[in-house]
Amino acid sequence: MPSGSSKQWSAKVVSFLFFLAIVSAIEFFHAKQLTFLKNESYSEGKKQLSIIRSRIEAAIVSDMYILNNFSTLVTINPDGEVKNWDKIAENIIQDGFHIRLIGLAKDDILNFVYPMEGNEQILGINYRDYPNQWESVEIARNLGNTFIAGPFELFQGGQALITRTPIFRDPPFNQDYWGVSSAVIGLDELFEDVGIGKIENKYELAIRGANSSGKDGPVFYGTQDVFDNAFATEQVSFPYGGWYLALSGSEHVLMDVPWYRVQAVRLVGYSIMLVLAIAFMTIYRLYLIADSRSMHDELTMLPNRRYFMYSLKQAFKTTQKQRARTFAVVNIDLDGFKAINDTFGHAAGDQVLVECAKRIKSELRGSDIVARIGGDEFLVLLPRIIDDQHVSSIVAKLRKVICTTPVVYETHSIYLRISVGWVIHNNNYDDVDALLKAADEKMYEQKRQVM
């Protein structure tokens, strides 16, 4: 039936759109869930970044406090013996967290280094002769306070900060300049102790503000992209200037979240969709079976009256639009069918109807439609008919195939006889009912002649 395929097509389109909408909704809410989880992770990241900022400040201040004790001792006893400074410097390095080297430069000429081993070559240098060194020394002297320079690349590998603390003989007036105290602070050890390595397992971290230049300084750790996409920032404050920290997301931002939380929406959504899909397919399958049964005769599996009437009306409309095309309706009735039922039983009658249906179909074209419309009556729709002779030849073939060979039921041979009436559509028929009535009358006229 033409409407059957269109119904199936419509059902497939609707079901596709329905499930597409479900998938879109699931993925939409999955994205919302990921955003929520990322925001949770970002909130935790902000807390961790704040902790790292405070740890950096505490570590730097702690080392600076210990180093200031050394500077204070030099201020009190600027002409002290170097051997006494060695002992003090040894204790400072032991008590400090990240101090690698201590130096004193009277009149900005390096005259004391601890530890001396491996650093002999730098003893006696004049900072004024090294612009990159002198810049930070001069800044510290002008500030009258500790200045943190760097980071610098070390020859032995890694990076380090250098603290410059000016020493004056007349504190707090700071007019009589003695020189400068310098210390090398290991940056790699500092970063490890404050937990930067741990936070980078989940996030991207970057630091800017080389030479304590703060927010507007160059990036010396990480990349500029981190600042461009940062969800959290922190300002690290030194006695003068500071650093600017930034944290952005990475592909590992949800690494600590259980997989079932990450996929919760999909797990629930697609489980529900699977149940709905199974239910839909089951209902649709039942619908197709019911629809097929409503359009076909259960015994012969031929189209029934409903199917035939729809097809006939479509042919009627097509012929009205395309005058050159016409069709014929053939009414076939089994003669003596009641006697077959009475003589051989209803099972024999059913077999006769099934065999008759097969024989009719075997002689029809693919475009022809045969339907059982009740009892022992069949209707045939013949499209693309040329003339009366064309219909007569088809009817003759049908009569021959139905009546020539008997239907064998158990040990009985049942010969069939039929009455046939047919009409070709023309302008005299206003509707399908008139057409069917004419074919029916011709069939009964033939039946009366036989009787």
What is the CATH topology classification name of the largest domain?
Beta-Lactamase
As a whole number of angstroms, the C-alpha radius of gyration is 51 Å
Question: Low-confidence stretches at least 5 residues in length (pLDDT < 50)?
Answer: none
Structural class by secondary-structure content: alpha+beta
Classified in CATH, the superfamily of the largest domain is CHASE domain
Range of strand content = 15-25%
End-to-end gap:
37 Å
Protein name: Diguanylate cyclase
EC number: 2.7.7.65
GO cellular component, one term: membrane
Cofactor: Mg(2+)
Task: Kindly list the characteristics that best describe this protein.
single chain, 451 residues, alpha+beta, Beta-Lactamase, Alpha-Beta Plaits, five-stranded antiparallel β-sheet, four-stranded antiparallel β-sheet
